[in-house]
Amino acid sequence: MRRRGALVVLAGLGVGGALLLAQPRPATPAPGSAEVRFVQDMRVHHDQAVTMSVLVLKVAADRSVRSLALDIQLGQEEQNRQMEAWLRRWNAPDGAAPDAMHASMMGMATREDLLSLKTLPAREAETQYLRLMRRHHQGALLMARPLTGSRQPLVAGLARQVTATQSGEIRTLDSLLKARGAPPLPAPHGMRH
């Protein structure tokens, strides 16, 4: 009886494996396509969010800020590993740093903004981080929303995940800024309120 059960399980696994192999694989996005550019740009964007989070974790004392920064760091490092693997599979180069105008439209921090996270007193650095990360996340939403309906399922899934996660984190950032009496930075160009 035990042997028959094992055979049934093996047969089921074989059928399941055959069905998986029969599934069409998503087509590789074309070089220079919106999907490839999105993944390249989001990789660079995530790198900066990780950098900002690491910088504030070195000085922050507020447990809520520390917790949020660690969540952002770990979540975006994981997504970056996924995107790096996709770009390798697609034979596409990694993203390059955007020019100043493009970076501003993406909600990215300037070199001076990043330096302030190292030089401001701890409480001010925490507030600066919250303000910079809010604008940074708004830029990510601008980048991700057009790709939520992509025909490339990996990219569409990532765009939806970025939109959901970072929208939730913006609400947390707003709450922390409000508790500090700190106004947010202006939204990136193109962001609707």
TrEMBL record:
Q: Which Pfam families match?
A: DUF305
Q: Which InterPro entries match?
A: DUF305_CopM-like (IPR005183), Ferritin-like (IPR012347)
The residues covered by the DUF305 domain are: 35-176
Name by which UniProt lists this protein: DUF305 domain-containing protein
Q: What is the lineage of its organism?
A: Bacteria, Thermotogati, Deinococcota, Deinococci, Deinococcales
